[in-house]
Structure formats: C-alpha cells, structure tokens
Model the fold of this input.
Amino acid sequence: MLRSIESWKVNLISVWFGCFFTGLAISQIIPFLPLYVEELGIHGGNALSIWSGLTFSVTFIVSAAVAPLWGSLADRKGRKLMLLRASFGMGAVILLQAFVTQAWQLLLLRALMGLTSGYIPNAMALVAAQVPRDRSGWALSCVSTGQIGGVILGPMIGGLLADWLGLRMVFIVTAVLLMVSFLVTLFLIKETGYTPVSKQDKMSGREVFRSLDNPRLMMCLFVTTMVIQMCNGSVNPILTLFVRELAPDAQNIAFLSGVIAALPGVSALISAPRLGKLGDRIGTQRILIGTMLFSLLLLMAMSFVTSATQLGVLRFLLGFADGAMMPAVQTLLVRHSRDNVTGRIFGYNQSFMYLGNVAGPLLGAAVSAATGYRWVFFATALVVLLNVLLLRRFYRSPKTTLESPVTPRNQAAKSATDATSARSASAAEKAKTPG
Done:
C-alpha cells in the first residue's frame, strides 16, 4: 500500500511517527530528573536545585553548540543519516543513564546526549526539502503535531512507569522508544532528490548568509525561534506555584498544574495543520505575526487572572497560537533559503531554539523572584512585542542585496558566462565592420 503513495507522503507519515516517539521519549524523563538526582545521593534544597538545573540545562547548551555542525553534515551526507545518528545515539546514551550510580555520571551522560541530539530539526529539513513548496507550511505543521503529541503524553506515561516500575525503568523504556524511531527511519524513510554538497563546495557560515536573499530577515527568524521557546519556558518554573496561589484550598495541586501545563499542547494539535494550510494560502508571515499578537494579548490577560480555571482557559487559547508559530518560522526559513544550505539554516535555527530553552526558565525565575509571579507574564509579553516589531520592520524593508559567495562551482559558471559574453560581443563587432 505504501508503494502506491507518493514518496514524500510516505516520508511525511514516517517522520511524524519518528518525531512522536522522540518527543514522547524525551518528555517522559524531564519531569523526574530531580527525583533521580536525589536518588543518586544529592540531598539538601540548594544542592538539589543546582544539580537538577545543571542536569537539565547542560543538554540544551551542548546541543546549541553542535547543532550547526550537524546541519552542515546533513547538507553533505544527507538528512536520513543524521536521523539515524540522532535516534540511535540518544537511545544508547539514555539507556546508559539507567545504570549510573553517581550524579556526576548522569551529568556527563546528559552532556553527551546533547552531542547526539538533532532528530526533529533534521526531520523538518528532510520534509521541507521533499514536499512541494506550496504545501510546505501544511507539511511542517503536521510534523510538529507529532512532536507536540509526544510531549503531551510523555509526562503522563513517564509518571505511570515511574510509579509501577521505578525511575530507572523509565530510562530503559525511553531508549526502546528511540530505537523504534531508528527502525522507522531506517526502513520507511527514503531520501529522494537529494544532491550532496561536496567538501570543495562547502560554504563557510559567512558565505551561507551571503547566499541568502535577505540575511537580516533570516537572523530575525532565528531570534523569533528563541523568543517562542523563551515564552513557552518562562512560565515553567512558576506555574505550579502560581496555581497554588490561585487555588490554595485545592488538594491535588500537582495534578491540576499538570493539566494546565498540558492544555496548550492539546489546542496546538488542533490548530497546527489548519493554520499551516491557511498560511500556504494567505501568507505564512501573516500567520506568524497574527499568532504572536494573539499570544501577546493572552499573556497580558494571564497576569490578571483570579482563578485556576481562568488560567487554564487562557493557556488553552494560547495553544492555538503555539501550534502555528514554530511551523510558520520553519516554513519561512525554507522559503527564504536554498536547498544546498537548508541543513545549515535549520542547524542555526536549532541553536537558537536551545538557547531559548535555557533563557526562558531563567527569565521566569529571575522576574518572579524580583517582582512576583504575575509579572512573569508581563515580561514575556514585552519580549513578544519587541519581536513582533522586529518582524514587521524586516518584512517592510527591502531585501538585503549581497554578492553570492565564490565557490569553485559558481566561479567556473561565472568564467563560462564571461567567455560566452566576450564571444558574443566580438561577433557583434565583426558584424558592424564593413566588408
């Protein structure tokens, strides 16, 4: 049956499952890392907070540093190879985390996990390179629903596994899920129409940006990715505490906070493919700016809520915007770059995403400590407003015109063009000469 379907559709379905299992695998570990650190012998509030923070953030810091390297390698060797590397590498490293006996061993393996990351951005790049350009917004939005679905279900499944089988078994089950992603990628995904970039034609980072039609807009999109992740993460450190402040008499604060935390993911699943398809029709940049303005209004409204129910409703509405923003950025990255640098562009974008994952919780913790929980929403809204103003400026400004980078291939093409022009000019001169 799969053979009768167009290859890019088979890849889209396969990548969706790969992203779903990857999101499921990663998210079901993160909520229980502090408990695991404590089980490894770190006790005391301050020490446990420091070790838990380091263990969580080191993965994203290392990933941000190496993402451009994997993006460059994807352009040279192919995206499928990078998907296989990421799924197998993360699975192996997470499996080892089940057998550590010291906190420093876990920290080291979490850093190594950052080196092996990159499944989802490379999956996005593979889909972007193969789907028709006029359907890229819809396709990337569909892929994002796989990741979102995994992230929603992950903590719940992880909690059940931790209660039934113990914390260490969560890591083993997670490794098995990543091996499923590896097998799906190996047997179902076919990378067609891929033209590898030779080592001689490989561009430097500067040349990559000089090859773009509008490099300033591209940098603005990178910053937008970071802002989106910051906004999603800034509330995480204070959400449970804020819910407890809104509902002091509730007996199930942990469950209530978990539901409120998961609500944006539910609505994002609904909105992502629909708004992605709408963006293909009316313009993806309009969808991006419109959803960011919508999220700005919702964030400001959250600072005035007086009950947990109001907060839950507003976060559910926020998910409709969340489901569109990141796929919209990725679609614009595809449409404003060339196929031979797509991997590099997605690698740079992933670095900014990881930076947002680190900066968001830091912003939320710092603002809440200085001014209170409600000001976290105001601060986040201000960041979104500044980003919207940047986006509007760069979409109104003319495209940046820069010379194309000089590589052996385009240098030879330029020489051939110059020679042809010279021969044409000589022939025209002879035609003008009498006799």
Remarks:
- The chain has a mean pLDDT of 81.
